[in-house]
Amino acid sequence: MTDAFLYTAARTPFGRFNGALAGVRPDDLAANALAGVLARAPDLDPAAVEDVVWGNANGAGEDNRNVGRMAVLLAGLPASVPATTVNRLCGSSLDAAIMASRTLESGDADIVVAGGVESMTRAPWVLPKPDRAYPARDVTAVSTTLGWRLVNPAMPKEWVGSLGECNELLQEKFSISRERQDAFAARSHTLADRAWDDGFYGDLVVPMGELTRDEGIRPGTEPGRLAALKPSFRPDGTITAGNASPLSDGASAVLLGTAAAADRIGLRPLARIAGRGAHAVEPQMFGHAPVEAAEKALRRAGIGWGDIGVVELNEAFAVQSLACMDAWGIDPEIVNTRGGAIALGHPLGASGGRLLGTLAKVLIERRERWGVAAVCIGVGQALAVVLENVTDEVNQG
Known about the structure:
With 397 residues, this protein is an alpha+beta fold. It is 30% helix and 19% strand. The chain has helices at 26-39, 67-74, 92-106, 163-174, 178-197, 223-227, 262-265, 290-301, 318-328, 341-344, 351-365; strands at residues 5-11, 15-16, 51-55, 83-86, 111-119, 125-126, 142-143, 248-257, 271-280, 308-313, 370-377, 381-389. α1 (26-39) packs across α2 (67-74) and α3 (92-106) crosses α11 (351-365).
């Protein structure tokens, strides 16, 4: 077995629902991220990419028919470069990176690109096929943007609630106040805005048309302003549009390879994929699943929370992020130091790649050795990855 390393990362800016990227097809978003990450390795012959593993959660519209392969072709890579598309909902691109790392470790390839895409704006409405021709009844179009659709009636009712209602249940279980949630959300916007102003995202993001910056960031957001928003899922609830991630459009990519591929890639590796973890819980408790996924990844890396200097946790909802952080018992100041999904956006299939790219860069900037990327996933799952900084900027002991 050999090690898998992250060499570089790139993503599009994340656009708001019906925002600047509303007119861009998801396969074009994917192609832009794929071309963008390869442009960061100009010495690499694209024909040397041995596989592309791409994440996508919806796949019901223009992202159908293996959007990873469409990205390869639209980005102008040689037709000899293969690709596959994987779906683990919100964790799809993190899953793609995990699969790619296993491919490298097994010796089946030396250079693989992983990534993901989602256009939640362009996700279509679908009509179920009738059980016979010309039914004498109304047929309802179902949105594929987010959450359950065309639910199997055999599923228990408690499993198929809305994502927001599931997180209200999580709030009840762990007694996480509205005030904490709003403060966490305001921090996300503040840190994301500061990161952009400081130039942190400049070399991670490739423009998409006229959009050059994440569109959902609201500078000056304060907890007091968020406190005025009405609950979204229960009249007396705590979750609002302000303390949950927005519907978003975007794509991300990471270039992974073995140590032996460094000369062909023309770069030195940034981080080693040191541990991976997947975990599942009852579907309604999906927001808490990262707790054990990260524990598994840490055990497989041979380290503990005391070794971790940086955490990138996807902020699907403030409440589930806080529940995970509380369970881990970590310093909140090491989490999402450049903002999170509440501000940056959460295009489902693309968020995992964003987490990895950001994590690797923050590890280097802060001269930390170990970091964790984790994401909760609808229907009761989560994934986590441990990265080890392998650059000269960190004392490897």
